[in-house]
UniProtKB/TrEMBL annotation, chains A, B, C, D:
It comes from Aquitalea magnusonii. This is Formyltetrahydrofolate deformylase. Pathway: Purine metabolism; IMP biosynthesis via de novo pathway; formate from 10-formyl-5,6,7,8-tetrahydrofolate: step 1/1. It comes from the Bacteria. One of its GO terms (molecular function) is formyltetrahydrofolate deformylase activity. Belongs to the PurU family.
Length: 287, 287, 287, 287
């Protein structure tokens, strides 16, 4: 995690068949790769092979700008979907926030101390509230108000800002607006949301109030990729904490904040570190 | 918990108003009660006061067969609903089971080593499978087959067996039949079920399969009192455990068994120890 | 927790004997107290009775400046040690920090959004590093360098600052200096430390490195009151998280930060809310 | 886990160097292996490469009785330590127990329902207490009394029984005698113990009493391989549970039983499934 050595990470999914690992291992060996981590998974019900390999670039004899051309024949032969990324090129994360700042504070602090190996070119909000905090961290803060009437224009403005900033992915840090289908399609598996319940329980609005009304003994939080179906996207991480009859709704909200921070930040770190593969509305997280 | 001293336990709920605690404390002091545990809770949204008091009988100057008469005036004045129980009179637990025996094995072992301070006068099943295990533990085992057609007769036979055995409450230890509304009405807050999901997620059938399909990162189990609405009764206890993409449905079922055992046995112990008060489709568990 | 109603909280410990609860309940009823929360505990091995009562001041007919005089006779009769506090008088918390800022960031944020019902009149550090962050939050920041040679003078300066600021208690938010015995005696049960291990395992220096070397499967954090014996004071809260062979020391440090924040902030909140009673080098935390 | 397909599992450790994975993958591909699971780990601080590969035997063209000869050249070239096992050959587990039966009950039940893919040729105890339970499960039960004086003779008798039964490994299910150094040397990484604390805290005797005295907020259990240094062997699994001031020593013992069962059974299952590699007094558990 705290690797300062330059490395490349390859994420692969392919129909499972014999010889895949050997093909990959031989390809990397040909160019003298020093493999740092390798993890694989077979989903037998879907006949799918998934793999993550990270290797050191020091000593690797294939220049990375020639990687695609060299790897493509193998990928084609095995029907691989693949993506390679370089530790030297930090992904660019945009954060969307409304008024609740706890997830934002948490992400910014983790970023500042090096837990999140990404750049944060901008924060977008539909309110002014978090400006001072964001600017204290030296990050541009943009307010794009959203109403029922101006939704399309607001998203157009958001797209413009995201493109201008070169954002690779977007984190909804308790952003209280629903994104349009068009937005979601532009950033497939690239918008991470935090929902304040243990999905699929209490999807939709006011989950803490409904958890209180139902009398559950644990509350949870869920981070997931955003899809067109609200709260139905592939789950990345979940966590719960115990509550008791002594906790009222306000206590649930307070305890929930700690869950939301942890669950969202794990998802962000795994995304940044290219640990997540998404398929069939599920995720594999290679640890 | 492992108290061998004889004690009485009083469970109370009443509209919250000033002076309740003083009235109770003074009543008990009058008869020289040595209070071992006292716990109370105010639900401000329902304006409800709930309390559990346990005191030693050694030195208590009011004979317990005169308790009701002596306490009734205070209870009436404060509109209390109350119930007193004696450690010397063990509650009688009936267990219903089908074929999965893990919860049954667990309950019987806890009972054998004294974790559950109750008697088990009988086990009822719709199958023969668990007979040898139950009889090994010296407990009568009754098979009452249940089909779509004979449901009413089967329940009539179950009622007869339960009454004959003097059962106070019933534990559904993975009993795979739905009880009728009439059954539930006979034993209000006296039938404890274990559902193999983190309710309200995945209520109904095949929760592990649906958890797998949804790609959740934690699975759970829920013990609750049975009401007429399936899987909707007051929740007593819940617990979850982590799963990963490496776990298939069979692994979920295996990991879930450990949850089910723990979650059901806690509910049973708390019920036996008179720690649970149920109201508004919720429970307070005094620990 | 988020109570805006004015209230008083009474913490009591006394030799256990019959009539204690009645005496307290009658005293409060005399002055028409509306009890919001009451929790008690008997430690039978120490024959100790411990209680926390919180009541609304609205309608309470005894002026709080006359409370001590009115209550003292009852306290004396029952040999009570007691302390009363008012929600209107926020405790004043001093924070000591060195260079690691994660606990500080966390405490300041919780304070800012109202999770911690206290004032923070100052932060003291032996380094300059956290100045900008502290001052961003509008809190005075004092640097008191500490070396082996100037320890006594440094503490004298710290005492002066603490008294000037009217600090009630001190939180060591990863403060890397050992306090003198004199310091500890000045603030009995009023200095809260976070130790980055699951005490008593790995007390002393470099707990994450030693946890890694020992190959444990969980790491922990412990908040405790500071006593003269390093890492031996009464434990307030502990939490653990799972690690695996994939985690190196850096990963342990990162995962540990999340534990430290949560475990320290819970201790601080409970202390601020007068939920903790300490005796026999243990704590009771009334929830 | 619930695989009914015949498979082979290879565990490897070797000095880390380039080409290891390719060498293994090519070897298996040569014989048309269908890899079901593969997991690897690099310990960079020890420059060690560790791997577990499981493949289907159906279609594998190398007869397993010729495996060693075919694989040895590759193993030698890379200085591998390796072990192959077949799903068709169940490992033989001996259980040692004294009087506490909870871990024994748990293991026997898991074995009966197929969670533990092993045979249990015998149970050895220094007491008669568990005979009825063991024999109910159809397993031979041997009593070998142990005193300070007869320790050597007792172990000689145990060795005889173990050899006669063809035991591969031994589980100490709360067996209250310390094994000699000779015993441990005979079964390196083959004796699994459960210690009723979160090691390294509270090693040695009476951990629950000492946890109570120290006032910890969580108690734990640890399963580990037995080495000559008591409670110092490589840790396989740990788990904790929350306690409070309401729990006395008896409650700790009761809550601890649930931990012990879970933590021991996981270790046993992982050992049986050849998921554990031990080195430098640590374990890697491939999940």
């Amino acid at each position: 995690m705290s690797n300062t050595r330059q490395s490349a990470t390859l994420l692969i999914s392919a129909p499972d068949k014999k010889g895949l690992v050997a093909a990959l291992a031989n390809f990397l060996m040909t160019y003298n790769a020093n493999i740092m981590h390798a993890d694989q998974h077979q989903d037998t019900s879907e006949n799918l092979f998934l793999m993550r390999i990270q290797w050191e670039l020091d000593g690797f004899t294939l220049p990375m700008d020639a990687f695609a051309a060299a790897f493509q024949p193998i990928a084609a032969e095995h029907n691989m979907t693949w993506k390679v990324s370089l530790s030297s090129r930090k992904p660019r994360m945009a954060i969307f926030v409304s008024k609740y700042e706890h997830c934002l504070v948490d992400l910014l602090h983790r970023w500042r101390i090096g837990e999140l190996n990404c750049d944060i070119p901008l924060v977008i909000s539909n309110h002014e509230d978090c400006r001072r905090l964001v600017e204290f961290n030296g990050i541009p803060f943009h307010v794009v108000p959203v109403t029922r009437e101006n939704k399309a224009e607001a998203e157009a403005e958001q797209f413009r800002l995201l493109e201008e900033a070169g954002a690779d992915f977007i984190v909804l840090a308790r952003y209280m607006q629903v994104l349009s289908g068009e937005f979601v399609k532009r950033y497939p598996d690239r918008v991470i949301n935090i929902h304040h319940s243990f999905l699929p329980a209490f999807d939709g609005a006011k989950p803490y109030h409904r958890a209180f009304a139902r009398g559950v003994k644990l509350i949870g939080a869920t981070s997931h990729y955003v899809t067109e179906d609200l709260d139905e996207g592939p789950i990345i991480e979940q966590e719960v904490t115990r509550i008791s009859h002594r906790d009222d709704v306000e206590d649930l909200i307070q305890k929930g904040r700690d869950l939301e921070k942890v669950v969202l930040s794990r998802a962000v770190r795994w995304h940044v570190d290219d640990r997540i593969l998404s398929y069939s509305n599920k995720t594999v997280v290679f640890d």
